[in-house]
Fold this protein.
Amino acid sequence: MTDALQTSDLSRSYDKFQALMPTDLILHSSEIAVLIGPNGAGKTTLLLCLSGLLRPTTGIITIGGHDLYTEEKEAKRQLAFVPDVPRFYTELTAWEHLFFIAQAHEAADGFSRRAETLLREFGLWDARDLYPHNYSRGMRLKLGLLIALIRPFKVLLMDEPASALDAESASCLFKRLKELRQSGASILLSSHDPNISKDLADRTLRIQNGHVQDI
Amino acid sequence: MVRSRQITQKLSFWLALIGYDPHDKSLSHRIYLIYASLFWSLWAFMMLSLAANATAAMLTATGNGPANQSAVQISLFMFVIWSVYQLWEVSHRSPFVFSEEDAYLVCQSPIKRSVVALGWFVGDWFEQALPFWAIGVIFGFALAESQLEGKFMFPGFLRYATAGFRAWSVILPLHLGVLASLWGLGALRLQGNRELHWLPRMVLIGTILALSGLVWSIKVPMLIEMSAPVWQIILWPLHYPLQAAFFIHPWVNGMVVALGVAIAGLLVLTLTSENLNLSRAAQESTQREKLHTALRYGMVGLVRELRQRDRLGFGRDPTRLPARPGLSMLPWKDILQSRHEKALEGIWNWLILLGVSLGILLAPDFGSRLLLFVYWLFVVGQQTTSRLRADLTNWWMLRSLPFQAESIILAELAIPWVLTVSVGWLAIALGGVGLGTSRLTVALLIPLVCLILSLMSAYDVLRQSNAETLLNGTVPGISALSILGGTLCLAIPAGIMWWLSQYRWIGILLSIAASLLLAYGVWYMAGRKYRSII
């Protein structure tokens, strides 16, 4: 069976600074892995490389067996990413963002019902027709999460998803993640919170000075 | 303390522009500061004198009476118009502009409100006063020049400088007093938690009444005589000092009145700001402060985004724009964004393109046409890549879309390309009479020319893009490569046409084929660049 996400010799450097040492990483299906490490250890760099937002200096990334750069269309269909500070289109409301992403991923069937469920679950239903620049930081992060969750995927990458969430929304997110795991999705998220690793993780990865280790 | 730090920062910005670093304490650097101060003072004096030269001619030519009467009337008119504008501003939004940092520091500290108000006023007054000082000095110089009648000897220079100083010394307290009283009115609106809804309405009604009174006074001569005493009384605090500044009344008298206006204005500001609600002022102004800072540092993208947010407001009902799943969602999003942009800038840019296209067709000589053509290349590059550049600011969302890089590039360029071609055709329809039978050929080639240019510009933007800066929302603009590359790509099919000019249609077909081949090549290169953004 193909692994959900696989990297081989993945590294990234900024000029002379090696932010990510050559890494071979495998994320299995139906698995939640939590990436921990101190500030500046390379967590965000690793996630940005895996999501295709930052081109690695060396190495190959495959998502569901598809190379992220040579078979980008197939790979992107299976990959979702939530940054720690998401940016949005100024002229689109929250609802229109969800609609745009769902339609672009050809996941229009039952969109309204799915969007309503997600928006209500994360407490954004009443703010669905607002422009995201009027949202608080936590609300923006929630919208970033919903943009990932509104369409199908096999691999979900998240950069500190609970950092700006209230307790209720965080528990809602964790419940969702467990459901996603049961449905076969693989999730890799970074966090500073040891409880997340304890409650949620099937595997914990530690990153320090760009070196990734299983613990 | 906070305010003085801000003023120092502003000063440092201007000093940095002339190459002076306040942190460098070396002797050579201090000598440079003296040199720079002398140089710029002399430069300012020369510029003001130059402006005074033209102003002197204007004052004697346009005025009904003596030159100093004209100077008084013009400066009074400017003062009134500026005051009405300021009155409108302060009755709608806080004149006290706080950044987010100021809001944290000032709003939570137990400081006397009037001290904060005066501190903020002084910092902003200086910037607003500069144009009035300059105009006052120019008028002063101009009046001295008209008296000197072109003889510029040393005593003449003294007279020149004295006239400038005389005008400046009166306008300084006068402007300070007027602005302080207007800010006082602004502070009155921001008292406690009360919203004085009547204030903006009163300002509007007052302005309309005053303007209609003025218009009727001009239309009906009898009304001029009747209303003149009223206007004289209302405008006396401004009129009298200005007359003194420009030699009609003694300087001392004018100074006394101007100082009286200044003291009264500062008193009004101090009294009305005793209960100033700093939090409300901060709420109304932090966004404006962000905009000012972005403007000062030339962050064009951020300025546009902040203005756009301001225009859009809070939210709206969802769109009913029909949508089809897949790649066509990118043009769907572009149309939706364009519909809600509410910015004149968008239309203005297309009008510029139309104007330049017409200019190329109608220009009388080859040199002007060439210059306009180079500018046209630049505008087409800018316009056709506008959507691509806007979407690159949302790199995380754009990159997550399940489309090939080449398809994304085409989808981003499609709508601007259609508009650019339409503008080109419109220009041919309006001004292409002189083209004769070539009109059809040019119209046929425009879509291909725009396609090559847009792809070349997209390649140029992607070539300069960097993933880290894209993640921060910063996207590069087009560079000279777009123009040079575009010119080169256009020169090849144009050369084929010229070479085969005897066989016109073969030439046209071959140049179309060459253009398509070039467009495909540039498109392929742009796709590769998109994928390899590091």
